[in-house]
Amino acid sequence: MPSIALYYPWMHFQDDNWLKVALLTWGRIVRMRPGSVEDRDRELVRQLCAETDFIVEAAPSPMVLTTVAEKFTEIIDADPDRIVERYGLSEEIDPGPHDLRYSTDWLGYEPPLFQGTWDMVRSVYMLQMHTGGNDSKMATVLSEKLVGMGLAEPSGGPWVRMHPKLGSIYLAVLTDVMARSEMLSPATDDLRMHKAVGALDQLTNLLLDDHTRGPAIEHAENAYMHVALRTVIEPERLAAVPVAKLIRFREAHGDELAAFHEHVASLTTELQAIAEVENLEVASAHLRSLYESKTRPQLNELRRALRAQGIESSAGTLVQKVNLNAAAGTLLGSVAAAGGQLAVASAAVAVTLVPYIAGKVEARRQQVGASPVAYLLAADRELSGRTLLGALQRRTHRG
């Protein structure tokens, strides 16, 4: 499974909590934000860019832009009148069934600042597309064709603007082609948008069929990882975790994340079947059931194994349940041998007990390293806000 995501459809991330989950899920995330665009990133994004290499800025290649342009041109030329009727920018957009203001048949929504602009004359929110320079998101040949047909119009500098439904379909197809070309996995923080996976092959239906439907889950592997993480970290708790802590966690558990990716990849057959489900609630239920049958048992087994070794880890701190008999009576025996002299006894304890603890630590490291779900255990212990002491206190209160 690719470990690099391709963010779409917008230039700026819209949901900080979604981005936090993405930070815990992906190795990197690529976004298409032209360098000439005003920086409207929030503090979380700026901190990630300054302190990590998680967010990668990249532009579609000329080959990607050409592929998308040729496909749009082919479909537009096959039925230009119908395309112009639906998406043409006449003086007043006809308030018919294909108008954004009156239709609920499409999944897009009004673009955020700097990717959209309100048209006072037409009373519709237009989507802006960057078409100039090395970081263009649309081939010049296509933008000129759209302008010439009245499907887009210049919007100052390297920008054109168009009907938001047409623009959102274009961005979905662009993402699909770039993801295929660069071995990336499309990911979005707006589930109302058109799905990118397979958008190129479905372009005719997307443009001309009001009732196009597709799989509810765009990337089943990614959705499964989100389900797993949200099972051990409640969303409201994650929102409260400082980004600096997430960055440290990510750096400390990179190998475990890679192992968990391999675990998810082993579920490809089941996930591919779930990816075909068109109802979001049903697909989500299938993902949760798969987690309960395939991943949670391994997580529970890892917890049991660590408890059996007499060692726990909470919020990054090692907690030992020292078994004095297993430690060969070193603690009490050393005190007795020293005739009750604590200074002498402490030295004896250091000599005999520390190797015992070190051995336990090494056993834990090996146990965790061998488990494909160790990443979830670490997230539960270090990011969920649930500490070992808190768990013991809750059990005491319940008793």
Give an overview in words.
With 399 residues, the chain is of the alpha/beta class. 53% of the residues lie in helices and 10% in strands. It contains 17 helices and ten strands. The protein has helices spanning 16-25, 43-51, 62-78, 80-87, 140-148, 164-182, 203-208, 220-232, 235-240, 243-252, 254-265, 268-274, 280-308, 330-337, 342-369, 374-383, 388-398, and strands at residues 4-7, 28-31, 55-57, 116-119, 124-130, 152-154, 159-162, 185-187, 311-314, 317-320. The strands form three sheets. The protein has a four-stranded parallel sheet. The chain has a four-stranded antiparallel sheet with strand order 4-5-7-6. α2 links the parallel β2 (28-31) and β3 (55-57). α1 (16-25) packs across α8 (220-232). The chain is globular.
Low-confidence stretches: 94-104, 311-337, 356-363, 387-399
Distance between the termini: 45 Å
Number of helices: 17
Percent in helix: 40-55%
What spatial order of strands do you see in the largest sheet? 3-2-1-8
Mean pLDDT reading: 78
Largest sheet data = 4 strands, parallel
Shape: globular
Characterize the quaternary organization of these chains. Answer: single chain
Broad structural category? alpha/beta
Radius of gyration: 27 Å
Give the percentage of residues in beta strands: 5-15%
Secondary structure tally: strands: 10
Topology as H/E string? EHEHEHHEEHEEHEHHHHHHHEEHHHH
